Every structure is written in structure tokens, then in C-alpha cells.
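Entry 14. Structure prediction run on the chain below.
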Amino acid sequence: MNKNYFSICFFFFFILFIFSMVNFFFMIYFIMNNMVMFLEWEIISFNSLSIVMSILLDWMSLLFMMFVSLISSVVIFYSKSYMSSELNLNRFIILVLMFVFSMILLIISPNMISILLGWDGLGLVSYCLVIYYQNLKSYNAGMLTALSNRIGDVLILMVISWMMNFGSWNYIFYLEFMKNDFYMMFISMMIILAAMTKSAQIPFSSWLPAAMAAPTPVSALVHSSTLVTAGVYLLIRFNLLLVDSLFLKFLLLLSSLTMLMAGISANYEFDLKKIIALSTLSQLGLMMSILSLGFPLLAFFHLLTHAMFKALLFLCAGVIIHMMNDMQDIRYMGGISLYIPMTCLCMNISNMALCGIPFLSGFYSKDLILEMVSFSNLNFLIFLLYYVSTGLTMFYSVRLMMYLMINDFNLLNIYNLYDEDYLMLKSMIVLLFMSVVSGSMLMWVILYYPYLIYLPFNLKMMVIYFILFGFILGYLVSNMNIHSLNKYLMTYNLSSFLCLMWFMPNLSTYGLSYYFLNYGQKLLKDVDFGWSEVYSGWGMFNILKNYSIFYNIFQMNNFKIYLFSFIMWILIFLIMLILMI
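Output returned:
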């Protein structure tokens, strides 16, 4: 690897790591003194026009910035080894940094214009990163990602135009005292829809697994703390406006269904990165649904704990894919814990944190969320969706563990598995430490008083029951062929429905594009290549072309043509003379 690239990676890793530590200490200071800092920086002032950049610094934005910069520093450190054979590594690092800076701009913005800049920056840079490997699959995935996110961008633009009536785009000034305003109702609806596109809730879910075409370090960054969490963070900021809103009830239903759909689809998937992507989708559904129940602090808590173990999970998957000679199908893996024990240790701990195993980071947020759901006055459907989704998380995690680590080795006879890439291991160990301690640390920092929830014994133990049930099902299904099981139960059509995310990719891509493209082809055939073309552009071009060919031949230096034209002119002249006499 070029030493220059190595030093560039190390420099940016060091800067981002220092930035995250500074944010951490500022956050502690702000939270102890109950401080909020609102900064206005006048960029340009010309006559009566002034362009002002607003920055909101409170404990929430500082804490989130700390997590984003820590994960991005670790990802850049990891990329030094993972992307070492990449010729344009500096381009990759610049794209990752633009991605991180767009997210930081979104985090610190109390203003709709600067939110749009960060929001759009995330969408555009994510397109560049998804198509990074430049093949047909990447281009399709990139276009689906970009167009799905454009819907959210348009909705943010509409919010900006609706807020023209208010005199300022600093939305934090209007949330409290204008929440019953008619305009604000429309704004809240558009904000919820925009957040649903960015955080891939039903019906915008199909882009999230497709975005797996990006390099694995990028996937770790996208799926932990940047792109997909932007929608959740926006709703947390707008929470005062959205409380008791009718749209939140729809969001609760859609996000709970997203949880269920992603959990089921992950059990039918064989692509390692797509399984982890679908688990991200499930956790986003959990964050959105608890947010729509009116617990923004819990959603933020789970967002931060989830960022750590999900980034670790992707980095472990990247090591495994790297060592398996760029193969992602889990059916060809198995028994790898004998060859890469440290990577498998990291993967198992992050998987357990994802499932909510006690005293790992995921447990503190997930258990609290499920207990608050049990404590809330909800109907049975939502209650069931929450707990079944929790069981499904354990189900696909155990299935993944069985396929990767416990079943027999299924790759070629000649293989070279090693666990000595220390750059990758160092970056994974940082996240491993955070995956273990971040839950308890954040619980001390975020929650001012300890939550003590009294529930009946069976309701309190319901999480454990579903986790055990999911564990048993995952163990059983991974030991038998799931497709033969479907044929036995005669549910092959049902399994294809479940496997393909309830046909959502088909609806959002083929279903939408087929009719438009077909109509476009008919227009091309009948109008552009039809009679209108003969009598307009193409016909005129043909006539002019034929005339120009004729004149070109005529004007060639040919003596016979010259004499013939001379005689013709003499004859015409004589005929005209005779007629005149």
C-alpha cells in the first residue's frame, strides 16, 4: 500500500477521533450545567440582505456527533487495510469524509435550509458510494437509493416553502407555540414522510438492502450512525410538534410492520450483508415505533447503542467476506470460528448485543423500550408485533451464527483463512469495547432518574421467553433445509412473498418503472420514429442532405459537367432571348 495513502488515512482517523473525544467532554459539561448554545454566524451581509448560518449545540447534538465521529474514525482506520488494493483510495476517503460532514451539518442545524443541505449531501454522497464498484448491480442500487431519498428531499423543500409564512426557517422557535396551527399540521405530515424515506420504513424499504452494493466500510457507516438514522434524528428534534398527531398513529403501524417484515425477510436471506441490512431495517422500525409512542429519549438511546454494535457487525462481516475471496453467500461458509477466532468473538458479542442479551449495550435500550411498550396503553396487535419482532431478531442471529461458525466448512478445498490483519482487529476491538459498555454509560448520562417499571412477572419475563423461543427456532431451522420445509408445508408462494420483503422491491422498481418505460417506448416508436418524424426533423434533414449531395457532385472539378452546365445555361439564355423577341 502507498505510504502516502496510509498517512492520509491515519491523519483523518486521528482528527475524527480527537473531535469525538472533545465532543464527549463538551457533552458532559453541557449536561451537568443544563446548557444549550444557539450560535448565529453571519456569512455575508450585503445592503439589507444577510445570510446567517445557525448552529444548535446541546447535549443531544454533541453526543450524537461524538458517536458519528468515533465510528467514522474507526471505519477510516479499518479502510486502510480493507481498501488497500484500491487505486483511488484518496477519492474513497474524501467521499466518506463528505458523508460524515453532511451528517454533522444535519445534526447541528436548527434551520430548515441547513438541514436540507445536510440531508441532500447525505443523499448525493450515498449515491456516489453505492455505485463505487461501478457494475450494473451497483448502478441499479445507486439509482434506487438516490430516487427513494429524493422523495424526502422534495418534502423538505415543501416544508421550507410552507415555512415562508413564518418569517424564519429556524423551526425550533415555532414547535412549542404553533403546534395547533393549520400550516404546522401539514409541516408535521411532510416531516414524518421525509423521515420515512430516509429511514426506509414501509413503503420505502427496498433501497436499504439494495444499498449493500457499497463497500463494506461504507455499509458500516451508513447503517450505524449516518444515513438511515437521519430520519429518526429529525423526528426526535420535531417531537414537540408531533405529539398527539394523527400521523404518528400511522407511523406506529407502518414502523411496527417494517420491524416484522425485515425480521421475516432476514430469515430467508442467504447474503451475509443483506441479513445485517435487514436487521438494521428491523431496528429502525423499533426506533420509529417507540418514537411514535411518545418516547423520543428512548428512541435516541437505542439509536446510539445500536450504532456501536451494528458498525461492529458490519466490520466483522467485511473481514469474513475479505477472507472468503469476496463471497457473501453464507451457505458456502461454516466452521470459520476455528480459523478466525477474534473476528468470530467480535461478531458473536455484537450479535448478542443486537438480540438484547442482558448487560450488553443493546439490552439497556431494547429491554427498556419493550417494558415501556408493555406498560403503555396499546392494542394487542402492536404489542404482538413488538415481541414477535424481538423473537425474530434472535431467530436470524442464531441462524447466521450456525451457518457461519458451527456448521461444517463448505468452501473450496484450498483456502487461506487468517486472523492476523491487525489494522482491522484494532478497529473492531474499539467498537467491541463500546458495544459492551456504551449501554450502561449512556443510561447514566441520558436518563436523569432511573426508570423503575413495575410489571407482572410473566410480562416482565416476556422478552426472555421470546428470545428463548427465537433461539430454539433459529437452531432448528439452520439444521434443516428451509426450502424443503416450505415444500413440505406447501407454502412455496408464501416463502417467496416473505423472502422478497413482501414484494416491495418489485413494487418500487419494476412495478413503477415498467409502465412508464413501456409508454415511453410506444411514444418513441409512434411519434419520434413515426409520421411526425418524416414531416419534421428527419424528413427535412433527408431532403437537405440529398440536395447537398447533388450540389456537391455538381460542383466537383469535372470538366464534362462544367461544359454540360455551360451549354445548358447558353440554351436557356437563347430560349429566353427568342421568347422576348
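Residues 532-581 form one domain.
Filed with the rest of this week's runs.
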